[in-house]
Specification:
Oligomer: single chain
Shape: globular
Order of helices and strands: HEHEHEHEHEHEHEHEHHEHEHEHEHH
Helix content: 40-55%
Distance between the termini: 53 Å
Bound molecules: iron/sulfur cluster
Strand content: 5-15%
CATH topology of the largest domain: Rossmann fold
CATH class of the largest domain: Alpha Beta
Structural class: alpha/beta
Number of helices: 15
CATH architecture of the largest domain: 3-Layer(aba) Sandwich
Length: about 300
């Protein structure tokens, strides 16, 4: 089928089925283009709650589609590729969370949203990368357990001054850990050294990269930071390459380049236009979560939001 026919059919089905497509910032350009909203996991979860649609097609990895389903129990949430998982989330099975709970019974457990739903159910709080420092600095406890990303844990520790027990000590996103290592960052800085490069990175990058970055933030924060950067500077995007497409759409007159064009999340890229179309045609694959788990997950999210409001 031609790409233009796929797009036409997706648009028709969105209308007849009262559906919206939500796409994460790391999706391929064509999927971002057919999406009704593009953003990070938190922005998309909020959009999912605000929209009037009956069906949500979530173009992202599985934990994101699960979060949308938890927050929208009355809507049908479809995940076009159930195999699109987050390897970072897989570092932390629920059994490990339980172990840490037993070992450190007095320390609160804060989980990064990039974690399995089953693991979240044992946490005290759930945060996005944008909210991690804010929430942890509001806790009265001086020792906090955080997982599964060791680089984000280190960033939180340095920013808040609290002692962070990283759970597990080795969890990482392979894209940020390896394809955005200091080697690739130095290479990019060298390549653009005559263009006053400004390096903005996601906190999932290794510490040595974070230390030389001009700005650190979640994908939504990175997009906002660009506005404040000198117009004559070349902006180097230190996260998964998909964000560069989104940034260029938002700032068409700026020079924005990925630190490493090969910083690709294979799982995010498993979703194609064709899989979005199949999802809408066949209403697959529906995220179905046990109501007790939905209740518990919502409770943790509400407690987390409440704490951040204080
Ligand atoms: S980029 Fe990394 S953290 Fe994000 S979904 Fe892919 S593997 Fe997970």
């Amino acid at each position: 089928m031609r790409i233009s026919d796929i797009i036409r059919k997706i648009e028709e089905l969105k209308k007849t089925r009262r559906a919206v497509v939500l796409a994460h910032n790391y999706q391929i350009p064509e999927v971002q283009d057919v999406a009704d909203h593009v953003g990070d996991s938190l922005e998309l979860a909020i959009k999912a709650m605000e929209c009037e649609a009956d069906i949500i097609v979530f173009a992202g990895v599985s934990f994101m589609a699960e979060m949308a389903a938890v927050l929208n129990p009355d809507k049908v949430v479809l995940h076009p590729e159930p195999d699109a998982r987050c390897p970072l989330a897989d570092f932390l099975p629920p059994s490990v969370v339980r172990e840490y709970r037993m070992k450190y019974p007095r320390a609160p457990i804060v989980l990064y949203v990039n974690s399995l739903l089953e693991s979240k159910l044992y946490a005290d709080y759930v945060v996005t990368s944008a909210a991690a420092c804010r929430l942890i600095s509001k806790l009265e406890d001086e020792i906090v357990i955080f997982g599964p990303d060791k680089n984000l844990a280190n960033y939180v520790e340095e920013t808040t001054g609290k002692e962070i027990i990283t759970m597990p000590p080795y969890g990482h996103c392979p894209v940020h850990e390896y394809a955005l290592s200091i080697y690739y960052v130095n290479k990019a800085l060298e390549l653009y050294e005559n263009e006053n490069p400004v390096l903005i990175v996601h906190p999932e990058v290794p510490r040595d990269v974070r230390k030389i970055a001009h700005h650190v933030g979640s994908t939504s924060q990175m997009l906002k930071i660009i506005e404040k950067i000198d117009k004559n500077s070349t902006v180097l995007i230190g996260t998964e390459e998909g964000l560069t497409y989104r940034a260029r759409r938002l700032y068409p007159n700026r020079k924005i380049v990925p630190v490493n064009p090969q910083a690709v999340c294979i799982d995010m890229k498993k979703i194609s236009l064709l899989s979005v179309l199949r999802s809408l045609e066949r209403l697959k694959y529906r995220i179905q979560i046990d109501p007790d788990k939905v209740r518990r997950a919502r409770e943790i999210i509400e407690i987390s939001i409440e704490l951040m409001r204080k």
